[in-house]
Design brief:
The chain has 14 helices and 9 strands. By secondary structure, the protein is α/β, with parallel strands linked by helices. The chain has 2 domains: 2-162, Rossmann fold, CATH 3.40.50; 168-288, N-(1-d-carboxylethyl)-l-norvaline Dehydrogenase, domain 2. Helices cover 52% and strands 14% of the residues. It has helices at 12-21, 33-40, 50-55, 67-75, 80-83, 98-109, 123-129, 140-150, 165-193, 198-205, 213-223, 233-249, 255-269, 281-288; strands at 2-6, 25-29, 45-46, 59-62, 89-92, 114-117, 120-121, 132-137, 154-161. It binds nicotinamide-adenine-dinucleotide.
Amino acid sequence: MRIGFIGLGIMGNPMAKNLIKAGHDLTVHDIVAERIKDVTSAGARAGSSPQDVAARSEIVITMLPNSPHVKEAVLGSNGVILGVKPGSVVVDMSSIAPLVAQEVSAGLAQKGIDMLDAPVSGGEPKAIQGTLAIMVGGKAEVFERVKPILLKMGSSAVLCGAIGSGNVTKLANQIIVALNIAAMSEALVLAAKAGVDPELVYQAIRGGLAGSAVLDAKAPMVLGGNYKPGFRIELHIKDLQNALDTAHAIGVPVPLTSEIMEIMQALRVDGKQQDDHGGIIQFYEKLAGQLVRGAQ
Ligand code: NAD
């Protein structure tokens, strides 16, 4: 299968490499030249633009930061829409606003092209392992055609509904992840200031009801003072903004989402927006005057 891949950042790079390992013929593009080089040295061909990538591919995957980037790469000048051939499918795996996924899909539909929105969860480690959780919106028959490709990048791919449903599901995911990290941070700072070793607190609770995938992914990082992304706070702010906009547009109050958004805004003002979202703990450490790392 000839696959195009646009957006070769923290996530797109290992996802594209897993498709190459699975034997697919990849044409790739990014606006940063070194990111293309890294993936072509693993066996892909370079495309000169999204249009060029689409012209050479049966499935075009995008993995870009946010809604405007996807709109530009798919519908803009030199965009996918100008090169894509009848019968091809566009799969946007970025996390974007559900309404924009619908808008981009409607633009492609005018040319008779189907689209899925298929954002992912699991972060860089699962992107490297090819074990992402993939949440999909679109037509069932298109999903069934593309599913074997998705399962080269993930260990699960669930069709959640019509186009846009993948990103609604992702917003739900991002609310749960952000609030879990905040709860973990609040609790570990409390333990540290009360004089109990937060490492031992983590070991003691991880097998109980408070245990979670978030705790196991983020507690070892924050206990080691490691905030290297992973998933940057600035990208989580983007997802929470999309969650707030979507929720308010349909009349759903989301009080805890507002709270964690303001915590992330405070971290941004503090210059921490490039840190991994595990870095949320730094907000609590500052409030309490207590570091978790190295606490006994
Ligand atoms: P990233 O910033 O590392 O990568 C994005 C890439 O897109 C960059 O290489 C950038 O140069 C490229 N790009 C931007 N505009 C472009 C354009 N018009 N044409 C071609 N390339 C363009 O971001 P990431 O961490 O890989 O995240 C990508 C998406 O996946 C985001 O929507 C993010 O929210 C989501 N996501 C990230 C993670 C994570 O842990 N990093 C986890 C799940 C989902």
